[in-house]
Amino acid sequence: MILSHMEQYQSGLDGIFQALADPTRRAVIGRLGRGPASISELAEPFEMALPSFMKHIHVLERSGCIITRKDGRVRTCAIETAALAIVGDWLSAQRALWEGRTDRLEQFLAEATDPKETPR
Amino acid sequence: MILSHMEQYQSGLDGIFQALADPTRRAVIGRLGRGPASISELAEPFEMALPSFMKHIHVLERSGCIITRKDGRVRTCAIETAALAIVGDWLSAQRALWEGRTDRLEQFLAEATDPKETPR
DNA sequence: CAAACGCTTAGCCATTGCGCTTAGTATCTC
DNA sequence: GAGATACTAAGCGCAATGGCTAAGCGTTTG
């Protein structure tokens, strides 16, 4: 298991998931997947004011999902794949837990003849 | 590609990521990975009051990460792996974007010799 | 039947999140 | 050097989040 991830970011899962919980920020990640871009370039598709957009960038940067660098007056952003790898690692760990446990789960579902909320 | 996920839950990514952004809720997911459990059983490891804990359960249920059923006075919870699969799908889609693009990204990183605004 | 149990509802409170505007600062460009 | 450009800082408003307590409600147990 790659521990560098765990040590650095394990406690950062909060921030990473939080960062990814917003459609604007996920769209930014999507755009950056095709290569680095400047702030205004990233902001262009969105209707919101630039300072509002900047907050999203900060959230992404603080969480470690992106890295940025300023050259002159232009700040360039790039995706930081390590953060998404952390999510992938967590997902794998979860999957490892419930795999081979479908027996119990199916049993639970089979018994659920009442839809969701049993009438009182 | 399995589209049923995309159609049903694509707009639910907000809720799923939001649900996973809390350590208590991730711990619940972890516990449920080992099999279904009742509310009080799930709440036991946590210091918070039961109504506070219930809010986490509701967040998890609304997001689709878990399903619950009430038998008598006991509500049993189980993990809903489909929600985590949605996250996995999204992650894969992102990975697909930035894979084969390491050239550009490495170039960006190589140029980042300026330690002024470079986060870690 | 009464008491204990397992939630569940309602509402309070402090903090955070996400949008806005207004007003900077620091580069370019001419 | 003046003006445009590309952010950046500060602060406002409102809704949502995450904790709490107090009280209620149906179910099981003695």
The major sheet of chain A is characterized as: 3 strands, antiparallel
How many structural domains of chain A? Answer: 1
> Which CATH architecture of chain A?
Orthogonal Bundle
Query: What ranges of chain A have pLDDT less than 50 throughout 5 or more consecutive residues?
Result: 1-10, 113-120
- Note the beta-strand portion of chain A: 5-15%
Pfam families (chains A, B): HTH_20
GO molecular function (chains A, B): DNA binding; DNA-binding transcription factor activity
InterPro entries (chains A, B): ArsR-like_HTH (IPR011991), HTH_ArsR_DNA-bd_dom (IPR001845), WH-like_DNA-bd_sf (IPR036388), WH_DNA-bd_sf (IPR036390)
Keywords (chains A, B): DNA-binding
Report on the architecture of this protein.
Two copies of one chain form a homodimer. Chain A has 120 residues and is mostly helical. The first copy, chain A, has one domain (3-111): Orthogonal Bundle (Arc Repressor Mutant, subunit A), CATH 1.10.10.10. Helices cover 60% and strands 12% of the residues of chain A. Chain A has helices spanning 3-9, 13-20, 23-32, 39-43, 50-63, 81-98, 102-111, and strands spanning 37-38, 66-71, 74-79. A three-stranded antiparallel β-sheet of chain A has the order 1-3-2. Mean pLDDT of chain A is 83; it is low at 1-10 and 113-120. At the A-B interface, helix 2, helix 3, strand 2, strand 3 and helix 6 of A face helix 2, helix 3, strand 2, strand 3 and helix 6 of B. The structure holds a DNA duplex (30 and 30 nucleotides). Chains A, B: This is DNA-binding transcriptional regulator, ArsR family.
